[in-house]
Amino acid sequence: MTVKRKILMVLLGLILFLHILPFLIPLSTASQITDTPFENSRRLRIDGVELHYRTWIPDEAEHNPIVYIHGLGGSTFSWRNNIDEFVEEGYPVIAVDLPAFGYSSRQTGLIHSQENRSKWIFELLDYLHTTDIIHPGEGYHLVGHSMGGGVIAAMALDRPEDIQTLIFVAGSVLDNPPRVRSLLSYPPLKRTVSVLGEHVFFSKDRLEGILSSAYGEEVDEDTLEGYLHPFNIPGTGRAWGDLLSTSTAFSEEAVASISVPAMLIWGEEDSWVTLEEGARLENLLSKGDLTIIEGSAHTPMETDSAEFNDRLLEFLSGRDD
Distance from the CA of 284 to the CA of which of 13, 69, 222, 276 falls in 20 to 30 A? Predict the structure, then answer.
């Protein structure tokens, strides 16, 4: 056997090994989530998907409901600093965990398209309306952070008549190359993503680094634990394999067709979804208005919550009186 053939055989063996290796590393299996981490934790099963959500209802609701939708890796915990001021002003508030996040479903086989997320959340809101928990009146105020910006864009395209305003917080709406999704749908790569997620990226040290990057500053222990706990739920790694291979985004033409009044809140120092992307989104939206929080990074609703809340309250003021 020639040297060239030996090298070729070694390379083929290495490739075969790398294809098999991810399947040799065990992953946890999803089971029914029974945690009730918050006093107002509730669950609703929709088309086989169990959503964890929380509501804060004022004694006298004077305005239309605010709906919070988190970003990649977030949950209802991400909005902990953006509740009290709005409830005190008479806004019912709803926060929901998307599937594979927080305390919602971890089952495999889900298609995590923005269109499906829109459907799941609207069905939850319809349930809350028909059970007399909330009254949308002129429509919902939808607030979406990062990946959640794509969700509220999908909801605006699906049922614009049921939405009063859109608030994009560092909204990732346009960036999700189809080629990347195609690559991640290849079984060995998809399994590798699941393995890396469960055994590497979901570790405490790694998550601390990711959060510090998103925050633009060090995170405290309570914040780190609030984000870490949901990642330790069995089945999260497998669910993220589906998530990253089926998530979708929108074309510029689709976004440009949205006519709902929109506010865009961006951190000046955001390195995850840059300010340039905010300006691009503002230019596409016919009724979009970009506001910038100086010195803030990717999570202004957490790191600069006082200013964030003031800006949002000012935008909402008088819109549903």
Answer: 69
